[in-house]
Amino acid sequence: MAYELYYWDGIQGRGEFVRLSLEEARTEYVDVARASGSSRGTSAMMSIMRSGSEPHIPFAPPFLKDGDLIIPHVANILLYLGPKLGLAPKEDGLRYVLNGLQLTITDFVAEVHDTHHPIATSLYYEDQKDEAKARSAEFIKERIPKFLGYFERVLQQNPQGPQHILGDALTYVDLSLFQIIEGLNYAFPKGMAGHQTKYPALSALHDAVARRPNIAAYLKSKRRIAFNEDGIFRHYPELDKAA
Amino acid sequence: MAYELYYWDGIQGRGEFVRLSLEEARTEYVDVARASGSSRGTSAMMSIMRSGSEPHIPFAPPFLKDGDLIIPHVANILLYLGPKLGLAPKEDGLRYVLNGLQLTITDFVAEVHDTHHPIATSLYYEDQKDEAKARSAEFIKERIPKFLGYFERVLQQNPQGPQHILGDALTYVDLSLFQIIEGLNYAFPKGMAGHQTKYPALSALHDAVARRPNIAAYLKSKRRIAFNEDGIFRHYPELDKAA
Q1: For chain A, does the N or the C end have fewer beta carbons within 10 angstroms?
Q2: Which residues are in the GST N-terminal domain (chains A, B) (predicted)?
């Protein structure tokens, strides 16, 4: 049975980190909220989340359903799928190292979200714009260099070469790092100016992932939703400035 | 060889979620930054983080060292330790369910942190106090009920009874939920007023964990650092108000 990915329709959001791995592996999956038919669509997703009897209810999308098993959280889904999709190392210990890298991406993504929603998710962006400007300025000045600098360093210190974040083969974290660079370039083009020079290994990894046949085909397909201002990475010109 | 836990000295912080599991299991461990001697103390922690040769450098504490293996991030450490400490289910699929619950706690803890640092970690609390008041008000009104309501629901929908968050035995997520309630009671006593009535299963779980002999002994020991205003859960009276 195909994997079922449950995530909000209309945005890349956190679901995109899972989609990239499924697409790279050319695995059969159903993007449930975007599909039509019986047990499909956003209502099918909400019905699981609101279930009064399901013991393993997720707090929020994305979650993956594999048969009866419901797995929430991006890093957890990728931890589960990685070995099945050939996107994780065989050695058990290294899987924790890989999971640690993905969890650092999780933290970074939460900070990206808070650049436009620093006070409350329940309020509109327009109602927290001044605070968003302050938080974005700090994000560009302090947090982008801290996170991207860290991943650059991990790539450079990889004993098997800077082509991959771990070992000598593609993993789901490489795909997630591609998405991070894509998203930051979309949201903060001024803030990201010159990142190719500052983070050469990360930039090369981004380009290498974009050239992979399955990823390139996916990015051109209708399955890839365009970045927009409902997602995690939003381009608000007033929040973007040179680092 | 004893597990080595690396975390900032002087605060419970994120390290406390790991400590509680190690203490419940009465496992031998070294709290490295708080210990003295060769390869001990905060400098030993910083030297791993700043290493120019270690391939698996962590982004931030806490991290666990088990021999040569370095495992960063609370949820990842608990995923690794859970089965070894007898604090995780035997069935593989359920370990992903448990990890998903811990990752929801991770997200919640990040939001707790941002109540006092909504604009930037690099700035003082005093420089973002107005924004902290706005974020804390939303946190008390919207986020505490959303997260605690979710965990209460998971407890109530546990087919094996509301005594545990998963299955019929203690897991590391039960211990983490104890710490969440402890921390919120410390930081937001007014905001948490009446939580015993609103979240009866969660409150009962908190009390049951506190009564466990190994936890009770730990809480009375010098190893348990008191809550303070350098940690994640901070009590600033100006941020606390009734829900």
Answers
A1: N
A2: 1-89
